[in-house]
Amino acid sequence: MNSLSFLQSTDPTTSGPSSLHLVHVVRRYGPVGGMERYVWELTLQLRQLGHRVTVICERCHSNKPVGITVIELGEVAPRPRWIAALRFAHRVEAWLRGNPQPDSIIHSHERIYSHDITTFHGSVFATVKHKAWWHLISLRIPMQLFLEKRELSKPAYIVPNSQYIKQQLALYYPSVANKLTAAVTPGVAVVKARDFRSVPSDGGVVGFVGEEWKRKGLPLAVAIVRQLRLTRPNLEFFVVGPASASVKFLFSDWNSGFVLKEWDGQINYSEFDVLLHPAKSEPYGMVISEAMAARVPVVISDVCGSSVDVTPAAGSILSLDSSLDAWVNALEHQLSRTEPVPQFSRSWQKVAYEYEQVYRSFASQMNFISSDTAETQSVSLVADVVHSSVHISSPKAR
């Protein structure tokens, strides 16, 4: 197939009546992170649509859902990540060999090699090829590249979780571009909406959410808010997610005006007057869509996958190359707004309908899927990836 356009229609009446057996693979099953919540909500909705759902995981981090078969393989040491990924992939393959799942569709969300469909949730690791050479001397680099390429080479379909990730995958892995479907972005749960209110000219509340605070741009966010406090002395900065001890140094010259709250699974977006998310890399950014669902305006970087959903009425999008003043002005503009933010909406049921179309397209073509073994693929992939990791092309050359 040269174009996987079957996701264009999301009308639930287009779904066929027959039930499918869908086997989802995820290391942590439960609403304990962005990707994990995506899998959790998707599998619940697929079960509601009448499909037989099995989940293979290391551990279920919540009560096991009624009607979903959960296979727990046991946890392994989470680091180094590439070793943990290799071990999990091997254990999934071993379980499937010992417990064949005939007429099922294996849908992975991890770096495995036993799948028919994969959803690509994270940043594309191959971008590391453009870093300075001293970033590439660790064994971690070729192994992560191997895992990524193996994950992408095996399945019939690759589902990116944002248009931004789809573009990155097509750029760095042109050989699998014909497998890419339309992006299936995350759904948004119903959250408490912010009542529209005028923000005092000398104050307001800026929110930042993210455990991976470096990647999500907290140092830049601190600099932006610090400068805006020169003209809004009562402005408060709420930071939700990172461990307080790891980020408190960023506020060493602050006497007040900031609140550090470690992640506990709850975010009250309605407390914020604006969400600030100047991420350096963000495959999607569920906190952005959740904030917009709560009618909170956003100020974000243009490398966030969810930026395609941010309209001018919902917030501001800036390049990471923008000056500090530009970020400060954008934040001031949102704090000074006189019109409410339109409420963003995307149900998890709609996400499930979009996946149904992927599954049914795959099921109709199962007789045409290559039967090459994972072992044969792995030998050639290791050689290819290690070779490519030492031949670095510049972004401009691409």
How would you portray this structure in words?
The chain has 398 residues and is of the alpha/beta class. It folds into two domains: 12-187 and 350-397, Rossmann fold; 205-335, Rossmann fold, CATH 3.40.50. It has ten helices and 14 strands. It has helices at residues 34-48, 81-98, 140-153, 163-172, 218-228, 244-247, 286-293, 324-335, 348-364, 374-388; strands at 21-25, 28-29, 52-57, 59-60, 68-72, 104-108, 117-120, 157-160, 205-209, 236-241, 258-262, 274-277, 298-301, 315-318. Strands 5-3-1-6-7-8 form a six-stranded parallel beta sheet. Strands 11-10-9-12-13-14 form a six-stranded parallel beta sheet, sandwiched between helices. It has a two-stranded parallel ribbon with strand order 2-4. α7 (286-293) links the parallel β12 and β13 (298-301). The longest helix is centred in the first third of the chain and has 18 residues, at 81-98. The radius of gyration is 22 Å and the shape is globular. The model is unreliable at 5-17 and 368-398 (pLDDT under 50).
Core attributes:
398 residues; alpha/beta; Rossmann fold; 2 domains; 6-stranded parallel sheet; 14 strands; 31% helix; disordered C terminus
Strand content: 15-25%
The arrangement of helices and strands along the chain is EEHEEEHEEHEHEHEHEEHEEHHH
Instruction: Give the full name of the CATH homologous superfamily of the largest domain.
Output: Glycogen Phosphorylase B
Alpha-carbon distance between the two ends:
25 Å
> What CATH architecture of the largest domain would you give?
3-Layer(aba) Sandwich
Assign the structural class, choosing from mainly alpha, mainly beta, alpha/beta, alpha+beta, or little secondary structure.
Answer: alpha/beta
The description of the largest β-sheet is: 6 strands, parallel
The total number of structural domains is 2
Proportion in helices: 25-40%
Shape: globular
Helix tally equals 10
Radius of gyration: 22 Å
What spatial order of strands do you see in the largest sheet?
5-3-1-6-7-8
Q: So what's the CATH class of the largest domain?
A: Alpha Beta
Task: Tally the beta strands.
Answer: 14
Mean pLDDT: 88
- What is the CATH topology of the largest domain? Rossmann fold
Low-confidence stretches: 5-17, 368-398
